[in-house]
Amino acid sequence: MANENTTVQLSELTRQPDDCSRVLVAALESGDIETSVALYEPSAVLFKKSGETMTGLDAIRENNASVIALKPKFTIEFITFTLSGDGSLATNRMKANLAFVKPDGTLVNTNVDTLEVLRRQADGSWRYIIDDPYGSMRAGMKQR
Question: At a CB cut-off of 8 Å and minimum separation 6, what does 34 contact?
């Protein structure tokens, strides 16, 4: 569970929707599980590569811990966001290279091309409500 200091820090670091993508990448690379989970609303949905969804902070924590275990390195190509008319919701799209080493020592280089939905919080910060790391490329992915 995120502590109060993490929440305060995130409120300062996520003033724009695209800040969440940068903070998430940094947290996953540095092994900061608390920050990686605190970026999500309690009932947020996170997609697996398979297209299956997981809901809630416990599931997101488990997923993010498995990503952190891979010691990922992201190279962000771009992040762009679009605000809803009233400014309460936003979509992020991030294109990045992801490199990691599998437990058997195999180096993997892959791409993530995200589609994320975020909601503005009462303090003006942003949190994920839907996060699909492969959302912008799903149409080209093989059927599961």
Answer: 1, 2, 3, 6
Which residues are paired to 128 by β-bridges?
Answer: 40, 118
Q: Which two tokens stand for residue 36?
A: 């990686």
Which residues pair with residue 93 across a beta bridge?
Answer: 80
Kindly report the average pLDDT of the chain as a whole number. Answer: 90
Task: Please enumerate in sequence order all residues whose Cβ is within 8 A of that of 75, keeping only pairs 6 or more positions apart, or say none.
Answer: 96, 97, 99
Instruction: Report angle CA 33, 36, 41 to the nearest 5 degrees.
Output: 125
- The model's pLDDT over 116-134, given as tens digits with 9 standing for 90+, comes to 999 999 999 999 999 999 8
pTM for the full model? Answer: 0.89
Q: What does the alpha-carbon distance between residue 134 and residue 105 come to, in Å, rounded to a whole number?
A: 24
Within a 10 A sphere around the Cβ of 82, how many other Cβ atoms?
10
SS3 state at 27: helix
φ/ψ of 137, rounded to 5, equals -120, 5
Q: How far apart are CA 107 and CA 99, in angstroms?
A: 7
- Per the rule left: phi > 0, alpha: psi between -120 and 50, beta: everything else, 124 is left
